[in-house]
Structure formats: C-alpha cells, structure tokens
Amino acid sequence: SRRLYATEAESAAAGGTGKLTVSFMLPHEAIVKKEKVSQVNLSAVSGDLGILADHVPTVEQLKPGVIEIIKEGSSSQKWF
C-alpha cells in the first residue's frame, strides 16, 4: 500500500469534490454516515481543531466537548 499526500487521498476518496467525508457513530446508531461536509470542529488536548478537506493527517487525543459538523453553506449540527 502506498501512502498518499492529503490532497491525493481526499481527491481519491471523495472523487475530487473538495469535501470531507464524515461518519459519526455511536455504539448503538449512526448519527452521520458517509456524508460530505465542509468542515468538522472538535476539541483536542492540544486545543480546538477545525478539520477541512485536504487537511494534513494528524493524531490527536480528543477531550470531552462539542463536535460541530458544518455542511454546505453555513448550516451546522452540534453534539456534546
């Protein structure tokens, strides 16, 4: 398996749409399943993160807080 750069990986995974494909799962249900979104905001130990399409891969320890999924335009959904 060959490791791709973020732009290549996103283009291959999303068909070049410039969107981030997100799945947000709980043990008993899928809240968001393979949905293309503009941005995901969440809290990590190192600070708040805003994840966009073509982001640089990173490993972070998440902390309790609000997860915000921003869809097309300015509509968003938040969970704690």
UniProtKB/TrEMBL annotation:
It comes from the Eukaryota. This is Delta subunit of the central stalk of mitochondrial F1F0 ATP synthase, atp16. The gene is ATP16.
